[in-house]
Records
---
Amino acid sequence: MSRNRFIALSIVTDAVLVNVGFVLAFLLRFEGRLPSFNFQAYLVLAPLLTLLYLGGAWTYGLYDPERADTAWAVVRGAVAAVTVGTLLTAAIAFFGGARTASFARSTILLAWAIDLALLTGWRLAFLRLARVSWPEQRVLIVGTGAASVELAQKVSQRDRWGWTVTGLIDASTDPGHTPPASAGGFPVLGGAHDVARIAGEHRANRVIVVSPIALRELVESLVLADEANVRVDVVPELYEIFIGSVDAIVGDVPLMEITHASVPRYYAAAKRLIVVLVALVGLVVTSLLLLAAVIAIAIDDGFPVFFSQERVGRRMKPFRMHKLRTMVKDAEEACGPVLAEENDARITAVGGFLRRYRIDEIPQLVNILKGEMSFVGPRPERSFFVEQYIAETPGYGERFNVKPGVTGLAQVSSGYATTPERKLKYDLIYMYHQTLAMDAQVVAETLRVVLTGRGSR
């Protein structure tokens, strides 16, 4: 079963069973009857209560196969989700006014027990009776020693949860080293220097590092390789636990994730909602400023006043980015694609002012509303330069896993003429650690840059 099908099935099943639980609670509480006076309060709140319970299930990992990968994890997540949903239900029923006052408190407590049994039971029964597993986790284990073999055995015991040991990787990073053919009955597929290729060929989506090897080179080769898109975990030493957090436990072996393939779904949804609202407000607030800029450009250098150019967006998909024209007409007709520089002779008098205070970026609010860009993210580049940077800068393609932004961490943290390599570091820092708080910080720093006029790109 695919990951998306599992999530859709879980959401629909939970939505139905949560309400079945409440109906059964009413039947138990009122001896097989559904008294209209009391039941009406539930019907009023049913849509909201369903969303609360589903939100709790989402928050506590019941829709995340990587988190709900053991029976204990399912039970623990269900207890947390149903308890939170029950507490919120009681609060809403108590403070909801006359329309919800008849919601019997004892019914809510009964629903807690029934919903807990239903949300836990269907998951465990589904796996056993339907003979299906969670989405595949094809695991490569780096190391061939006793600890690596023991971990491989523990992972193999989770086969019904979708875990498969693809093979072991010899810890040596020396290309001339000859690895053993097998260890503990598991095939050794090659050395650590070749882990990206091996992961790609064997469709591995998770690499667990047991042996202390050249971890930096290993992680960089995996994260930056085109062949593999994997999660990397390490079995941490004590000092690593002091500086990080354990994300999973396989048997009695703790794992610490050191790569993050994506951001939480709630963050992506919240960010999209916020940026759309802010973009709409921004267009209204800046409309007079935009009109004044259009008139100034027309007087200074004639038409056209707007400039549209194809840029490379998320997943390498091209789109047309809109700006106010700040350079002379046909600025690249003679020289071809050239990056703007400080004191660029092609920039007009009005264009210099617009660039200094980022006024030329206002039309990109339209790109935001269309879903092509966000406020914060890596700046979009032209395909001419993207091809060049991908060829010259390892890992440059990683930045296209998120939407490009009007501003970004690289723009507020590095100099105007900094190198693509340095900008890439800031882009990756943002990608792997982004939060709403970081977004707010980048936007605030951008406003400071705008008000002071520092930089011009």
---
Amino acid sequence: MSEGTMERMFKLKENKTNVRTELIAGLTTFVTMAYVLVVVPDILSASGIPIYAALAATCISSFVACLANGFYSNYPFALAPGMGLVAFFSFAVVGQMGIPWQQALGLVFISGIIFILLSVTNVREAILDSIPMNLKQAITVGIGIFLAFLGLKNAGWVEPNPATFVNLANLTEPSAMLAAIGFVIIIVLSIRGVVGAFLIGIALTTIIGIPLGVTQAPVGIVSLEPLAALGQTAFQLDVMGSLKVGFIALIFSFTFANMFDTMGTLIGVATRANMLDENGRLPNARKPLLVDAAATSFGALLGTSTVTTYLESASGVAAGGRTGLTAVVVGVLFGIALFFAPILTIVPSAATAPVLIVVGVMMAEAALKIEFSDFTEAVPAFLTIIMMPLTFNIANGFAFGFISYTLVKVAAGRFKEVSPIMYILSGLFLLSFAL
């Protein structure tokens, strides 16, 4: 594909970017989220899904979803199986409830169909547009803190504590020291305006990790085992078996959690990239929402849990990505990863963790735009921000923010400021907690 073709297809000049910047942004996003190549298959294997089949399903579903989003919506949002919902799939639905993974995939497939119907009818876009601007800014801040907290955890700087919930970890551990080195490198490169600061920082940190014993040498270069194993899960889902009355609550849980995780990611990343219009709306939001919906069902057909828009897209946006070319680059790299997984998975989490922390810092800037002087705006905004990292769940931040927004506005006699959709969503969130 020539540079001229890419210019016409992705409207690079109109979006104040260029091919080089988009390529770097795509590489940055991919390397930042490359951990899914290891973590997602590992978690899915706990449900009984063969690990190589899970890796193939992860790579192929991400490849197709990213390309679809890049070419169709022209937004720099990358997609892959969502970590939270993958864990819910394996440990709660299959592990605790004892539902076979084939039926669990059927539940994911059905939730994807529901997503598609909601997206085609513009219901999801209407919901996105109905969120007050202060809550949108709060969502951005909350996601930033969530990303930073995830980065601190992956860096080995904080650890769980039964008495204080979380405390400072042992910073003399090799991985923690490597993350500190990477953090300094990325900060210095960013301050100096070096193009591709995140990607260069990740690469240098990975190399430095070799003598520290954190970066492990690859066991090989090329592997065809994942592709050969895909037949063990592809089209093995049991849709008819998942159509049971007792599973309605599970379908609702998959649908609700993914819908608001996706919305939160779109709002947060789009805000960081200054893509929202003067009314706080994402132009043509229906397109990335529709791709996200279709990707969920497609991933279930292959053998993986809910495919969703990824928070790590913010790292590519921070690196300058503004068009679908960024997403296409990510997709192509996921396709390549199917064959070169042994090489691509050597990047340690300590090398990508600093990027998440720095992106969190950048996204926290949105807090300056929140009207904290208005108590009816401050309370829901604060709860939205604080509940995301503390519950390790974006959807929970939405829930507390929406419910509290409706309650405080009604209590203040300003119920007319609450849109009908917000009333409905608040009621649905309350219902989800009850279920």
---
Amino acid sequence: MLSGWNIPSVTIEDHPRFGWRGLMLDVSRHFFTVAQVKDYIDQMVKYKFNLLHLGLTNDQGWRIQIKSLPKLTEVGAWRVERTGTFGNLSKPQPGEPATYGGFYTHEDIKELVKYAADRFVNILPEIDVPGHSLAAIASYPELSCTPGEYYVSPGDRFMVWPGGGQHFYGLLDNTICPANEKAYEFLDKVFTEVAQLFPFGYIHMGGDETARNFWEKSEQIKALMKKENLKDLDEVQSYFVKRVEKIINSKGKKMIGWDEILDGGLAPNAAVMSWRGMKGGIEAAKQGHEVVMSPTDFAYIDYMQGDAAIEPPVYSTLRLKKAYQFEPLPEGVDAKLIKGGQANLWTEQVYNTRHMQYMTWPRAFAIAEVLWSSKEKRNWEYFSKRVENHFKRLDMAGVKYAPSIYDPIITATKKDTASVVVKLETEIEGLDIHYSFDNSFPDNFYPVYKEPLTVPRDAATMKLITYRNNEPIGRMMVLTIAELRKRAGIK
């Protein structure tokens, strides 16, 4: 096997399309050590990413030492240990020790910042407020509008997302109270130390997914609304965000937040990171604000990479080909205000670095190319071939990646009240899909998919595998007919 590559002596003239080429790593839901974050930096710089967005705080952990607020790491950095599916994990039991977690000391942060800078990478710190703040509230309960017993969440279900366009709500109040002056004193201390540790010119204040159902009942919030003439809860959050911006600006930094900070009126100097599609970014740019595009439908690399039958379960799918279609600069928007984009790796279901790598690569290749190359030069067929060739290098480097581009895309539809029709596709050309309905494991001697299949009446499973040139290349996939019927809308 080759142990290296040779290239001729050449001169290359090149430049990036966007200056902000980022990856977001959530170190709050699962903690990653300094060495592990350094390794992530080493991987990302190979593909000309220059911004590491660190999600340092959330409901599941507070990961940065704030010397003036020691309970944030004494309490907020630790939780009871659980393994399973996020959102369905059990709550802490009375007296159960909080043994899982960790945090970065000031010295750790300085070490990471220098390591990144030596590789031409900036680090953007995120302190997520007012929502997603259980770890902070468990440490300092007086920050909440709602008296009660608080804990650092191990991944239990304390929020509800009803779907269908309905607003989510909290079963537990995980928000810092905008009507509490102690909240702003707290945040001043936090951002003072954060600003001193991170030389990058921006601080991310989160601002996303704030459950307001407890605010609706709060007498403190009602009094604030009357005092400040705030007509709804959007304006309450905007009041909070604008005060946070003043704090961050006072530290010599510019504030950036998720696109919810538009609700109720955008803070005067804020930049917006657009995640709920491109709409928020477009709106912010039209108001004259800087924007970083990181929409869920193209750039959320915590999503499944292929079919749910074979991928670790997450609530949505983002395939490589779709990620490659990301276009950060919408028509009709001032290009100078679109700073760039990034892919986001939330780690609710990422327990270790091997899975971190699996979720990042190869989709981050697509984001890297989108952010570096001109739109006109992008070509899926050429790109996908380069990705396949690069898999060999990742194999030699011991870096894990998802082979999902070799797995079929499965669409089940209803033929009649009892029958299911299955359509199969592949992301890349030159693959044969072999299938079975008789519970046996198909290989290249089994039928090749040519046209939509009607599932046999009494079949229990469908098995699939892709081959190229009579060699297996995809993974064996097993789907129950019950699952296909469910996808087709047959009860």
